[in-house]
Specification:
The complex is a heterodimer of chains A (113) and B (112). With 113 residues, chain A is an all-beta fold. Chain A is built from no helices and 11 strands. Chain B has no helices and 11 strands. The mean pLDDT of chain B is 92. The chains are: A mainly beta (113), B mainly beta (112). At the A-B interface, strand 5 of A face strand 5, strand 9 and strand 10 of B.
């Protein structure tokens, strides 16, 4: 029940296209859903996060869509750029777990010029 | 804003040798601190977390241990390294009650 399943494992997109990464969870007690971006050899950096009281959150070219009934959330990267090429992780936590994050397995995004 | 320091950045150790990785944070007080391990091409596995000095919770039974001797210092240790301990070790902090975790630059450990 603690798993977060992420797909696809890898994604190749052309410059200017839309990148979409999906995550699904089982535990309905999860109440915080962040996305992290990680470049090779670096620590993950928080990109955007959402709580289940809203269905969508947008920050610049990055949007999280959240479907509480389906227990799914996704990251959309609009106008994808080569500099967006990185590994993206979704995660989830719940207040009662003291903010311990459960991570998805990651999606390696490549944006071709 | 907070800053997380980890050292060393890279480490190559023989099997059976001891380990000590250090994480120190600046710009915040009484943070929650976390140790994660990331295998190549994989997700992050939570190893330990700490809500205060001397308070350590272990998530995965293994030959690693953690200590928090000071509010802004978190140490990951092992008495005898295994090949399977190789990986990218990340320290993270969370300012109390915010849910948001910030990660340090990581330590790449290779056990030969």
């Amino acid at each position: 029940q603690q798993q977060v399943k992420q797909s696809p494992q890898s994604l190749i997109v052309q410059k200017g296209g839309i990148s979409i990464i999906n995550c699904a969870y089982e535990n309905t007690a999860f109440d915080y859903f962040p996305w992290y971006q990680q470049f090779p050899g670096k620590g993950p950096a928080l990109l955007i996060a959402i709580r289940p009281d809203v269905s969508e959150k947008k920050e610049g070219r990055f949007t999280i869509s959240f479907n509480k009934s389906a227990k799914q959330f996704s990251l959309h990267i609009m106008d994808s750029q080569p500099g967006d090429s990185a590994t993206y992780f979704c995660a989830a936590s719940m207040e009662t777990s003291g903010s311990r994050l459960t991570f998805g397995e990651g999606t390696q995004l490549t944006v071709n010029p | 804003s907070q800053t997380i320091h980890q050292w060393p950045a890279t480490l190559v150790q023989p099997v059976g040798s001891p380990l000590s990785l250090e994480c120190t944070v600046e710009g915040t007080s009484n943070p929650n601190l976390y140790w994660y391990r990331q295998a190549a091409g994989r997700g992050l596995q939570l190893l330990f977390y700490s809500v205060g000095i001397g308070q350590i919770s272990s998530e995965v039974p293994q030959n690693l241990s953690a200590s928090r001797p000071q509010d802004r210092q978190f140490i990951l240790s092992s008495k005898k390294l295994l090949l399977s301990d190789s990986g990218f070790y990340l320290c993270a902090l969370e300012r109390g009650g915010t849910d948001t975790q910030y990660f340090g630059p990581g330590t790449r450990l290779t056990v030969l």
